[in-house]
Amino acid sequence: MFENERYITSGIEAALEPALQNMLWYLIEAVEVKEKSNLQVFELSVVHSVLHATHSQEQPDYCQTHALPGFAPVAAKVFVIDDGDHSTMLLANEY
Predict the structure, then answer these.
(1) Is the peptide bond before 73 cis (omega within 30 degrees of 0)?
(2) Which residues pair with 41 in a beta bridge?
(3) Residue segments in the chain with a per-residue pLDDT below the cut of 50
C-alpha cells in the first residue's frame, strides 16, 4: 500500500508546505505494522509553538504522535487514501 502514484488536492497544496507533505508521506512509509490500512489519518496541531502530527489508522490499530519542529504551525485533519491505483492526500473537509 501507498507505493503507487501520489496525488494531493488543492486544499493540501494551499494548507501544507511541500516539506510537510513529504514528511507525512514519509511517516506512512515508516509505519511498522503488520498491515497498513488504506486510510491513514493525521491530526495536525500546535503544542507550545511546535507542530505535532498524530498519525493513526483503524485496522490494525495504530496511533503515534510525532513532534515536527521547524514546520509552520497548522491545525488540520488530513486523510491519505490508497485506492490500489494511486494514493491521494486531502484535507478532511475535502472528503
Answers:
(1) no
(2) 56, 79
(3) none
